[in-house]
Design a protein that fits this description.
The chain is mainly α. The protein has helices at 7-16, 24-44, 46-49, 67-79, 83-91; strands at residues 54-58, 64-66. A two-stranded antiparallel ribbon has the order 1-2. Its EC number is 3.1.3.11.
Length: 92
């Protein structure tokens, strides 16, 4: 039987071993992991759903952006929408 541990249980077990810490870093790490999983799933389905094509815009380096670039950006923005709250909480 395998004793491999996935990322989320590992993050929370490590957090439990540090009871004096706030847990905000663990939440941030878990949100990043979740956004990466969502992004991987969505891009993996891109061939089926037709979301892999180029868009009509370019990035700062002049390269054409593709639809997964926008999707991944939106997912990360959604995942970290609470970070402003976190910053205010840590600074107060």
């Amino acid at each position: 039987m395998s004793t491999h541990k996935t990322l989320t249980p590992f993050i929370f077990e490590q957090q439990q071993s540090l009871p004096d810490e706030s847990g905000y870093l663990s939440l941030l790490q878990n949100d990043l992991a979740t956004a990466c999983k969502q992004n991987s799933f969505t891009v993996g389905r891109g061939v089926i759903t037709g979301m892999l094509g180029a868009s009509n815009s370019t990035n700062l380096k002049g390269k054409t952006q593709h639809q997964p670039d926008f999707i991944a950006n939106d997912m990360l923005l959604d995942a970290f929408s609470w970070v402003g709250y976190l910053a205010r909480k840590l600074c107060s």
